[in-house]
Amino acid sequence: MTKLQIAILTSAVVLFFVMYFGCNTKSTEIMALEKTRAFEVEQTGIETLLKEAKSNISEANLSKVLILESQLSDLPEEDSSATNLYKQLSSEWYALGNPAIAGYFAEKVAGISNTEESWSIAGTTYAIGLQRAPDQKTRDFCTGRAISAFENAISINPENLNHRVNLALCYTENPPADNPMKGILILRELRESHPQSVLVLNSLARLAIQTGQIETAIERLEAALAISPENVTTNCLLATAYERAGRSAEAKMFADKCNSLAENDLN
Questions:
Q1: pTM for the complete prediction?
Q2: Which of 35, 71, 242, 247 is deepest in the core (most CB within 10 A)?
Q3: Where do the domains of the chain lie, and which CATH numbers do they carry?
Q4: Could you count the other beta carbons within 10 Å of the beta carbon of residue 37?
């Protein structure tokens, strides 16, 4: 399995306590939606996902999974010797096109090893599951677990911006009903605290492209390019942004550079 490498506003203190303790701050509609989502996530546990997935794969692929599961059944839940089997199951399910289940077994590995890297892998795998989820229930399942995994990675290494950016992108991919701007606000806060971060600029630019804010995207990407002219992601995103802006000459120039840099990375 490969790795990917996908500021909350505050109020015055008095107003916060008045709002928090004195009244219900969420609308009836939001509360109903959250209650429904919580119920659906509870119903979409790993056992349900496994049952549904197993019913849709070939007998040959299912036999591989069952063999690994049978080997696990003889081991204690958190036995360190189970790590390799969890990794194999995660890899197998990812290869079968089910990153949600792959994320579950990657999370098992992280629970045993408790390293920054293992939690990042689990979070990233769940994040892919979030992007590819066939329904909202699976999206919510993957979102909650990806967030938890990235938060664990952050707790181990708070200085690694990758974890914070990935956390923010989970919120932008599946925004909370009561705070739909949460992911954007996290990225904006990171932009203020790390103005030279190409990763943050690229992430904000990608979101701007997705929402049709092309000039904003170009501005951020040009700032990123000034910091790191050979960054592959920046050059590739600039090709897309200039194409969307109707600036075909610049689009072609950056598309060519994008391809060249990508080829060099592979060599």
A1: 0.80
A2: 242
A3: 28-182 (1.25.40.10), 195-267 (1.25.40.10)
A4: 19
